[in-house]
Design a protein that fits this description.
Helices cover about 40% and strands about 15% of the residues. By secondary structure, the protein is an alpha/beta fold. It has 2 domains: about 20-180, P-loop containing nucleotide triphosphate hydrolases (Rossmann fold); about 185-270. The protein has a 5-stranded parallel sheet with strand order 2-5-8-1-9, with helices on both faces. A two-stranded antiparallel ribbon has the order 3-4. A hairpin with a 4-residue loop joins strand 6 (about 140-145) and strand 7.
Length: about 270
């Protein structure tokens, strides 16, 4: 089973810290899933996209919902379609394999080339979901009962798992992962991130917008701290609206791009140190 030996060094579109790049590379070297935690909007999902792009590999995304079961990622047996085909005399109805559809994990295992598999927002599923994947992630295989076939990974995928820390993950699952917490970017790193999107942004406008943004995040009672993506959207809105840098502090133009809750909006409007 061939494995990837390239090193991830970020991309032009994704600015990664040295610590994050090191975590990605050690996870690949140890052939373990990389569990990424951090507050919403810190680029967890975009990391998998950047790794796939940098290493020139296909990205498979398994978006987790509250109703998602581990089985969904392995395969689904479409009994309804088989029954329907049987009623209408469709040929090949006795071939059960025709009605087996691989899920995202199964697709990653069955790929002829190594892929990057993103298991996105694993903490949205129920508490048993991570434990139900232990065997498959350890052994890189699963068994299809209906066809008596074992699906074994042809190439071990690079597995990146994200969590917003909505609930704790089981210890047995955590032991099998390399863990990295993405800290909220410093102002220096944030400026670099924004300039990736808007290389020609006016310096004074960006400086004032960032100062207001970080001041909003520092308000003690704010319920939803604005994220990186919201700052990027705000800078874009300020540029499109032709807002001068000097107006940002006093007028707080387009502040609804940054602040999304009524209570927070009231706090921001009454704050005098923005």
């Amino acid at each position: 089973m061939s494995e990837n030996t390239n090193q991830f060094q970020g991309t032009k579109e994704y600015v990664a810290s040295e610590e994050l790049m090191a975590s990605v590379n050690i996870a690949m070297a140890l052939q373990k899933p990389l569990l990424i935690k951090g507050e919403p909007g810190t680029g967890k999902t975009m990391l998998a996209e950047a790794v796939a792009r940098a290493l020139d590999k296909r990205l498979i995304i398994w978006n987790i919902k509250s109703t998602t079961k581990a089985q969904d990622g392995l395969y689904v047996y479409d009994t309804i379609q088989r029954l329907y085909d049987g009623q209408f005399g469709v040929e090949g109805v006795d071939d059960i394999a025709r009605y087996i559809k691989l899920g995202k994990l199964g697709e990653a295992f069955d790929s002829e080339e190594q892929v990057v598999l993103l298991i996105d927002e694993i903490d949205k599923a129920d508490l048993e979901f991570p434990n139900d994947l232990l065997w498959e992630l350890d052994q890189m295989e699963f068994y299809i009962n209906e066809t008596r076939r074992t699906v074994k990974a042809k190439h071990r995928p690079i597995v990146i798992i994200t969590s917003n820390a909505e609930k704790e993950l089981p210890d047995a699952f955590l032991r099998r992962c390399i863990f990295h917490y993405i800290d909220f970017p410093s102002q220096e790193l944030m400026e670099e991130i924004v300039r990736v999107h808007f290389p020609d942004v006016e310096e004074h406008l960006l400086k004032n917008a960032m100062e207001v943004f970080y001041n909003i995040r520092s308000i003690r009672d704010i319920r939803k701290k604005p994220s990186t993506s919201e700052l990027i959207d705000w800078v874009n809105a300020l540029q499109i609206g032709g807002i001068s840098a000097d107006r940002i502090r006093g007028a707080l133009p387009f502040i609804g791009v940054v602040v999304k809750k009524d209570e927070d909006l009231e706090l921001v409007r009454h704050e005098t140190n923005l």
